[in-house]
Amino acid sequence: MKAIWNGKVIAESNDTVVVEGNHYFPADSLPRELLQPSATTTVCGWKGTANYYSLNVDGKTNTDAVWYYADPKPAAAQIKGRVAFWRGVQVVQS
Q1: Neighbours of 5 (CB within 10 A)
Q2: What is the pLDDT of residues 7-38, one digit of tens each?
């Protein structure tokens, strides 16, 4: 799978986990230099607290476009150490 934003492949992996229709990529498949920490959090009743990053690609910012669960609840343990995308980030098959 590939994640694409602003015309650039930002993540690619053959090892994604699909939860609720979202592909969760290994965190190390996304270059850290593209990420800007965000103070945004949300809570999912069965997954836990999500944290966010904003993407910075070629001078453009996509606020809170990447999310992850640093300490997911046991029912969502398979997404620990993984990130998912939204806000215009396309996830397509390689």
Answers
A1: 21
A2: 999 999 999 999 999 999 999 999 999 999 99
